[in-house]
């Protein structure tokens, strides 16, 4: 690693959690003759890039800041250099650096430093509220606060996959959520379609998600994970409350997916520009009955396949007496193949907002997963 990059890393590691941007800006002024470094974080709705210290947000989709965010690439706009800030595929925002260096080697170094900043921001969020608060354009409800605190992030990439998810309405979501974990050659994904209102719905989802994580971290397969979560919910609510869930376990080497459909959200596959449902036998929702035993089902992906999981809050959304419905959703998803997973879920939610003319009344969740196994001789490594 270049000496200046090592210096930037040390600066980020030694800075107080709430001042890492300021300390990094001072370092770049000394080493790169940078006049200003500004951080813009993406907001909870994925619709604004919000400056850390206030000021107008960037909302126009074609703006240089959004091009850097969407394409994970540098964008030079006059005297400004825009760079994406992300960590393992989870896009946090962008930085604007002025003036933009003419030397492409310096810009490449600054891009690496922006990556280091992403990792530092992810760690700093555990110790300060500054960045979480600055990314909000309005106050979260208590239920939404609980739900966002559950999430593993909004995106993740690895050598053989890319995925992303989004909740809606972002600032008032109640029961819908998602989770994932990648380990060696496996990727496990859970999508929950919650029930109920407010904090009661969020509490039920928290119980289900933590039961599923507890079982997963104990090394249980997805069928036993569902069984344990089912028992946890039933023992507390005695069947009065239940939750719909889809559990997926993808073998990243072979593309074989082991699934448990517990009254789950809608699962769709995009292959060769054609969208089609993945047929799974629906089993009882988690917590509905005492002693439910869950069985796994399998299906196989082909390289380049894309999976979508969407909750009924999208399909059943209604505006002016018209239901959004499966046909409109399928047509929209079929055109999303050129988009990244995050751009795809952002577009789905954006299309839904446009359809209903505002935020959804019901909860909605969308998750997009691409399986992109390395080809022969392709030695990809996650960064």
Gist?
This is Serine phosphatase RsbU (Regulator of sigma subunit). With 383 residues, the chain is α+β, with helices and mostly antiparallel strands.
Percent helix: 25-40%
End-to-end gap: 14 Å
DSSP helical segment count: 11
Overall structural domain count: 2
Do you know the CATH topology of the largest domain? Phosphatase 2c, domain 1
Q: What is the subunit arrangement here?
A: single chain
Strand content: 25-35%
Q: Major sheet: size, sense and barrel closure?
A: 6 strands, antiparallel
Q: Order the strands across the largest sheet as they lie in space.
A: 6-7-18-15-12-13
Any idea what the radius of gyration is?
21 Å
Number of strands: 18
Pfam family, one: SpoIIE
InterPro entries: Bact_Sigma-Reg, PPM-type-like_dom_sf, PPM-type_phosphatase-like_dom
Protein name: Serine phosphatase RsbU (Regulator of sigma subunit)
Keywords: Hydrolase
Would you kindly provide a written description of the structure presented here, covering whatever features stand out?
This protein has helices spanning 3-14, 20-32, 64-71, 104-124, 130-134, 142-150, 198-217, 222-237, 312-315, 325-334, 341-356, and strands spanning 36-42, 49-51, 75-77, 80-87, 90-98, 155-158, 161-168, 177-183, 186-193, 244-251, 256-262, 266-271, 274-277, 297-300, 306-310, 318-319, 322-323, 364-371. The chain is α+β, with helices and mostly antiparallel strands and 383 residues long. The model has no long low-confidence stretch (mean pLDDT 94). The strands form 4 sheets. It has a 6-stranded antiparallel beta sheet with strand order 6-7-18-15-12-13. A 5-stranded antiparallel beta sheet has the order 2-1-5-4-3, with helices on both faces. It has a 5-stranded antiparallel beta sheet with strand order 8-9-10-11-14. The chain folds into 2 domains: 3-134, Beta-Lactamase (2-Layer Sandwich), CATH 3.30.450; 142-371, Phosphatase 2c, domain 1 (4-Layer Sandwich). Helix 6 packs parallel to helix 7. The longest helix has 21 residues, at 104-124.
